[in-house]
UniProtKB/TrEMBL annotation:
Name used for this protein in its record: GTP-binding protein
Biological classification of the source: Bacteria, Bacillati, Actinomycetota, Actinomycetes, Kitasatosporales
Family membership: Belongs to the GPN-loop GTPase family.
Keywords on record: GTP-binding, Hydrolase, Nucleotide-binding
Organism: Streptomyces longisporoflavus
Length: 201
C-alpha cells in the first residue's frame, strides 16, 4: 500500500532498497493518452483495464477528434517508475469519462500530486478534470500531449487558455516517447519538492 509521504521520508519499495514511494495520478479527459504514457514509462508490465468500446459507449463518449479509438480504460492504469536511488513513482491513471468519477475518492487518497495530460486540439475538455484535481487539493503539473499533426501551442498560450497559476509547470510531451514523458514527471516532482519546502518553511 502506498501512503501519502513527504519527499524526505523513507519506504522500502523495491528489492530491499531504501527509497521514497510517491503516488502520482495521471489524469486527463477521455482519449488524451494516459494509458499510452503509463505504458511508455513503466519499468514493470503496466496494469491496464482497457476494454473494447461498444455501440453503447459511443453514445456517451465524445469521439470527436479521436474517431479511430476502439478501447477505453474502465477502472485504472498502474505503472511504476524509479526516478533515482531515492524516489520511485507509483503511477495511477484514471478513466477520463464523467461516469467513472466515483473512482477518484480511492485513487486520490494518498496521492502527492497529479500530472494532467492535455490534448492541444481539445483544451476546453481539460477544465472538468482540473476542477476535480483542485477539489481534492492536489498540486499538479500540465503536460501538453503533442501528437503528429496536432495544433501547436506554446506553454504560455496553454497557461493562459487554462487559467493556470504562474508557478504551475507546463511541459510539452509525446506520450509515446519515454524521454519526454520522464522529463514531465521530473518537472512535476521538482515542483512538488518546491511546494513542500515552502509549506514547511
Amino acid at each position: 500500500m502506498v501512503s501519502r509521504l513527504s519527499l524526505s521520508e523513507d519506504a522500502y519499495v523495491r528489492s530491499g532498497a531504501q527509497q521514497t514511494a510517491v503516488k502520482i495520478l495521471v489524469v486527463g479527459h477521455f482519449a488524451v493518452g494516459k494509458t499510452t504514457l503509463i505504458g511508455s514509462l513503466s519499468e514493470i508490465a503496466p496494469l491496464s483495464t482497457e476494454e473494447q468500446m461498444t455501440s453503447l459507449s459511443e453514445r456517451v463518449d465524445d469521439l470527436k477528434g479521436v474517431q479511430g479509438k476502439t478501447t477505453t480504460t474502465v477502472a485504472l492504469d498502474f505503472g511504476r517508475l524509479t526516478l533515482s536511488e531515492r524516489i520511485v513513482l507509483y503511477l495511477f491513471g484514471s478513466p477520463g469519462q464523467q461516469r467513472f468519477v466515483n473512482l477518484w475518492d480511492d485513487m486520490a487518497r494518498g496521492a502527492l500530486g497529479a500530472l494532467v495530460l492535455v490534448d492541444p486540439e481539445r483544451l476546453a475538455d481539460s477544465f472538468e478534470v482540473m476542477d476535480l484535481v483542485e477539489s481534492y487539493g492536489l498540486d499538479f503539473a500540465v503536460a501538453l500531449n503533442q501528437f503528429d499533426g496536432s495544433a501547436v501551442h506554446t506553454p504560455e498560450a496553454v497557461r493562459e487558455a487554462l487559467d493556470l497559476l504562474p508557478d504551475t509547470p507546463v511541459v510539452t510531451i509525446d506520450a509515446r516517447d519515454k524521454a519526454s514523458s520522464v522529463n514531465a514527471l521530473i518537472t512535476m516532482v521538482r515542483y512538488l519538492q518546491k511546494r513542500a519546502a515552502l509549506e514547511h518553511a
